[in-house]
Amino acid sequence: xxxxxxxxxxxxxxxxxxxxxxxxxxxxxxxxxxxxxxxxxxxxxxxxxxxxxxxxxxxxxxxxxxxxxxxxxxxxxxxxxxxxxxxxxxxxxxxxxxxxxxxxxxxxxxxxxxxxxxxxxxxxxxxxxxxxxxxxxxxxxxxxxxxxxxxxxxxxxxxxxxxxxxxxxxxxxxxxxxxxxxxxxxxxxxxxxxxxxxxxxxxxxxxxxxxxxxxxxxxxxxxxxxxxxxxxxxxxxxxxxxxxxxxxxxxxxxx
Length: 255
Known about the structure:
17% of the residues lie in helices and 34% in strands. With 255 residues, it is an alpha+beta fold. The strands form 3 sheets. Strands 1-2-13-12-14-10-11 form a 7-stranded antiparallel beta sheet, covered by helices on one side. A hairpin with a 2-residue loop joins strand 1 (31-36) and strand 2. Residues 1-29 have low confidence and may be disordered.
């Protein structure tokens, strides 16, 4: 019970203050381990108006980066340090995004509204986007109607939480338990929560983490078994499998 109280206090501290620079294991770092309904998760909080959040897919040579190590190397050449990274959406056999992908205002892949198998097509799916110091998670149809100009966007699916409601196809007692990662945005349109389970969980539990613990009215599933995170302060470096698009936070080198 004492440990659960301490974990709850840590999440409350994270929710009440902005990210302070580089990642670490303390409550000012942006990332922390949190137990939710018996399963450990890493949850990370960033501010779209202040932290330098971006999406990356290909390197300067045009080839898919595929790993946090290559992303960190590219950023070093640009005079930047990688502080945090996570896989940011589903991808094809060639590591290309299978849905909408926008990087620095350039649409590299179009919105995907086709029907099909798998988690991506478990409708409704959605888009995580960044624009002008704001962030959002928006259901795909609504995003298409809004014709929003964005700096960064990645499409994935299914939605975890839609306007405060759990995705209608999720079952609380589902036996399908996997490592999962996702992103949610708070009602202020600035606070971005990214989370990855460290133990297998079902969709319903993972969605409740975002809705009930992190208080995000909209949240998006990013991927499952291949999910990985770069959070050096917590001893997490990913790198065990090749991935597609990535969401990352960086800062000027030595800053």
